[in-house]
Amino acid sequence: MEKLLRMKLSSMDNIYIKGGRAHFNGVSIQSNVGFSRVSFDKKNEQFIIRSGKYIKSDTKISKIINFISKIPFLRSFVLFYNMIKSNKKMALKIVGIYIVLLVLLFNFDNETLNTVDSFLENGNLSYFVIVLVVSIGIKVTSISNYHGAEHMVINYYNKYKNLEFNNLEDITRVSNSCGSVLILITFFFFYAFNLFSSYVDLNFLISYMIAYEVFISKNKLFKPIFYMSGVIQKYLLTSKPSAIQLRLAKVALKNAVNKSN
User: Fold this and answer.
1) What is the pLDDT of residues 104-152, one digit of tens each?
2) Alpha-carbon distance 77 to 85, whole Å?
3) Model confidence pLDDT, tens digit, residues 11-46
4) Phi–psi pair at 137, nearest 5 degrees
5) Where do the structural domains in the chain lie, given as residue ranges?
6) Are 59 and 37 in contact (CB under 8 A)?
7) Which residues contact 52 (CB under 8 A, 6 or more apart)?
């Protein structure tokens, strides 16, 4: 029995969490061995579980993506590819909303169009307002609760490497691996570059590429930004999850890491 326990703990050490995401009604978690998305069906009061084993792809596009993922700065764009690949329906919805907004804009009067153009041309303001609106949208919906639950179960697993989830309520819902950290670092460089260059969109692109390298390296030089991100996560991007939401997140993590056999 003791030998089997040691073997199980050893296998857990080789399994790590690659990422997670909160939804309106659930949580997605991906590990190096599998993935899982668990949603809560309010009508029937049950969990809907979709999970699978991670299978390495040998397609040409996968080989290209793997090659790019090893190149500093360029590898930052692999994140967008993976997001679109795993959330195709959401990507299509965003494109659809964008097209609808464009159609509506063309039907507005010139004064309104000029106001919108002026807002979009002011990159310092427009990028900030967009992020702020999205953040508030997260806070006022159940996404913030599921976001907190997702962080808590992942933080627990990364710390203890087991699936017992003892005293999970005491685990922080702040994570240095959260995408909010990447966004905050991006804005740090963005506003710094805007002091010397008027190419706003290019500044944002370069800022993101540099920020991604800082984000994955967890450079201590940017510790104040990581701390600031923690405050933003705690009070704006996450909320205290309910018992059901925590249980759902635990199910998602268990299904993501139990695909090694």
Assistant:
1) 666 665 666 566 556 556 666 777 888 888 889 999 999 999 999 999 9
2) 13
3) 677 899 999 999 999 999 999 999 999 999 998 889
4) -60, -35
5) 2-58+122-173+238-257
6) no
7) 34, 35, 259
